[in-house]
Write a structure and sequence with these properties.
Length: 268
């Protein structure tokens, strides 16, 4: 059986046991993007064990994982789980489902975190934060022993920024236009354009405000920005920047749901 997504994760260990064989005589079932997200999320929850402290991600894919954890808790298949939510919306979801919660002050080491991603490159680097929760996500996921990323195959890119969609940067509101221009100048050779994220539509949009009271600048790239660690350092050196949405060398497992089934890739 061929390895899923051979152009990605080629040097990593890939579990193909869940992949649909191309020689199968059964006609493939066409699944919606949300159904693919649910499949990836449910597979990730199989890694959760009783007694764990679990980072609960934010977004449409992670939401399915939180739902499944709650279901297993209520059925008794999981016990003594403590959740660490990565956003206010995930906190509200977990409370509504009866998942016991805590924070990094009481649990500075997290056993496992499950979260989605907006982009995944072949080295398992990520873009996260198009949902606006990148700072809290990074704080929790940097404290975890095992970080499982769950995506559908549309999130795979050849390089970070390769989707043409936003790479978010959380900034303080003070003089945000100044910070935006400085961010653009860092990546002028990559054709970078920055935009302040706003709420809703219409002509009277207000700046989007994160859970931490900050603004978000969305960066759009026409070309590869180059070495990601250098790019990260350059962004974080700018006064006014709080955090960026590149999650470099943080994922330990990537679960991808796609037309052929589900692949599980573990970093060596």
């Amino acid at each position: 059986m061929a390895v899923a997504y051979p152009q990605f994760f080629g040097t990593k260990k890939v579990d193909t046991s869940l992949m649909v064989s191309s020689s199968s005589s059964v006609s493939p079932v066409i699944l919606s993007q949300d159904e693919l997200k649910k499949i990836a999320a449910y597979k990730a929850v199989e890694f959760v064990e009783s007694g764990m402290v679990v980072g609960l991600g934010t977004g449409s894919t992670a939401k399915h994982a939180v739902d499944k954890i709650a279901e297993l808790l209520h059925s008794g298949k999981l016990k003594n789980i403590v959740g660490i939510p990565t956003s206010k919306i995930t906190h509200e979801q977990a409370v509504s489902l009866g998942i016991p919660l805590s924070d990094l002050n009481k649990h500075p080491i997290v056993d496992l975190a499950i979260d989605g991603a907006d982009e995944v490159d072949p080295q398992m680097n990520l873009v996260k934060g198009r949902g606006g929760s990148l700072l809290r996500e990074k704080m929790v996921e940097a404290a975890t022993k095992k970080f499982i990323v769950i995506v559908d195959e549309s999130k795979l890119v050849n390089y970070i920024g390769g989707s043409g969609l936003a790479m978010p940067v959380e900034i303080v509101p003070f003089c945000w236009e100044f910070t935006l221009k400085r961010l653009e100048m860092l990546f002028i050779e990559a054709g970078c354009v920055g935009k302040l994220r706003t709420t809703g539509g219409g002509g009277d949009e207000e700046p989007y405000v994160t859970d931490n009271g900050n603004y978000i600048i969305d960066l759009y790239f026409k070309k590869d920005m180059g070495d990601l660690k250098d790019a990260s350092d350059a962004i974080l050196r700018l006064a006014g920047v709080v955090e960026h949405g590149m999650f470099i060398d943080m994922a330990t497992t990537v679960i991808v749901a796609g037309k052929l089934g589900v692949s599980v890739t573990n970093k060596l």
